[in-house]
Design a protein that fits this description.
hpI Integrase, Chain A; mainly alpha; 3-stranded antiparallel sheet; 2 domains; DNA polymerase, domain 1
């Protein structure tokens, strides 16, 4: 069974696995989102498997040296395609373990927190990857065959993702009642940090959603209808990975020749709005960022407006400008 479906199965009542189960229950009791719990479980499963392979099964056996060995194993791991884990992925796995160790130390399951001096990978302040031009986005949006029910559904999903900049998990959780056609808004429930927000949605996206609701969803819904907006062919709500597969399929069919993810439509939405003159604080609210610093990274990729200013003002930017007769041409 894949790690995505596996549960943590303790073999002894006070072993590492049993404490991990209690830790996840503690997080759930404190209102952490299902996405956070899911990701935390995957991270802990990876760590528990690594420990089990080395005979480490009890909390007291965790030391700083053990955690540093685990960190080194993450850095040296290679995926099926031969690529290493990204630094962000490595950090996420280590944060999962650090939270677990801190919790055990607070509950006196262990005498001290072995992760307290663990140094996380240094992440460079990189710009988002996979940002598409408006032309490339249009090719991706037009890729599904809208003459088929599933193609029409996929087109509606892609339009909503790009129009609103919402995350894939937020799209998967959308309910029919969350779409306000009259006001042209979408209610995003329990986004990241479990915060609701209302964002605008464009007229074109609304037209595709309306067409999907009229022609496709009634044929897929399985009673009792829980109101989930986008349904699989089996009538079940999408999971985030299902949304990613839908986007990947459209990207491949579009022929743009780029490897992009569902999050790329979110990045592309923000960049297009910024280049169109949107205030960065509005984009922050639209994307649901807790910090403006997170949103400001898009100012580094919104280059169109800067190039226009440069072309208008820099004396050597445009060779097509009228020259004086005595101007020299480059040899």
């Amino acid at each position: 069974m894949s790690a995505r479906r596996r549960k943590i199965e303790p073999k002894e009542p006070h072993g590492l696995a049993a404490e991990a189960v209690r830790y996840l229950e503690w997080l759930a009791d404190r209102g952490y989102s299902e996405t956070t719990l899911y990701n935390r479980r995957l991270g802990l499963l990876r760590f528990l498997d690594w420990c089990s392979e080395r005979g480490i099964t009890r909390p007291g056996e965790l030391t700083r040296v053990v955690l540093e060995r685990y960190q080194k194993s993450l850095a040296g791991y290679r995926k099926e395609d031969g690529r290493p884990l990204g630094l962000q992925t490595q950090e996420n796995y280590l944060v999962d373990v650090r939270g677990f160790c801190r919790w055990m130390a607070r509950r006196r399951v262990i005498l001290y927190d072995p992760s307290s001096e663990l140094e996380l990978p240094r992440l460079s302040d990189r710009v988002p990857r996979g940002i598409l031009t408006p032309e490339e986005v249009e090719r991706v949006l037009a890729a599904p065959d809208t003459a088929t029910p599933l193609g029409l559904r996929d087109r509606a999903m892609l339009e909503v993702l790009y129009s609103t900049g919402m995350r894939r998990g937020e799209l998967a959780r959308l309910a029919v009642s969350d779409i306000d056609f009259e006001r042209g808004t979408v209610l995003i429930r329990e986004g990241k940090y479990r915060k609701d927000r209302v964002v605008p949605i464009g007229e074109r996206a609304l037209l595709w959603v309306e067409k999907y609701l009229e022609e496709v969803r009634p044929e897929h819904v399985v009673p009792p209808d829980d109101g989930c907006l986008f349904l699989t062919r089996m009538g079940k709500p999408f999971v985030p990975n299902g949304v990613s597969e839908t986007v990947s399929k459209a990207v491949k069919a579009s022929g743009i020749g780029k490897q992009v993810s569902a999050h790329s439509l979110r990045h592309s939405c923000a960049t297009a709005m910024l280049e169109g003159g949107a205030d960065i604080r509005f984009i922050q609210q639209m994307l649901g960022h807790a910090s403006l610093t997170t949103t400001q990274i898009y100012t580094r990729v919104a280059i169109t407006a800067l190039k226009e200013v440069h072309a208008r003002t820099h004396p050597t930017a445009d060779l097509r400008r009228k020259r004086k007769p005595e101007d020299e041409t480059p040899s």
